[in-house]
Every structure is written in structure tokens, then in C-alpha cells.
Amino acid sequence: MLRRKKEEVEGDLPGRTINNYFVSMTEEQALRYDEYNSRVARLMAMTKRRPLRKNATCC
Asked: Residues near 25 by Cβ (< 8 Å), separated by ≥ 6?
């Protein structure tokens, strides 16, 4: 088995190609995303009204 170090072959390799493909969500994915999004929005609204604090009476 022939093994070479990265430094030895790095110049022989082509540059990195990055392709981003954007696809639409399916109907079920969109439904689940909307449910999650509304849950997170409710939690964020709660934290704005009542910020997290260390409870002195805990543990």
C-alpha cells in the first residue's frame, strides 16, 4: 500500500468546488417548519416578558 502525505499531493488536486442547490420544501416539510417556527416565536415572546434568571431558592 502506498501512502502519501497531504502536503505531497495537495498541489495535484483540483480546487474545491462548492455547489449550493436550493429546493422548495414539500407541503409536509413546510407544515412542520411552520409549527416549529410558531413554537419558537412563542418561547421568544415569553423570554422577552420574563427573562431567564438564576433562581435563588433553587437547589
From this structure: 33
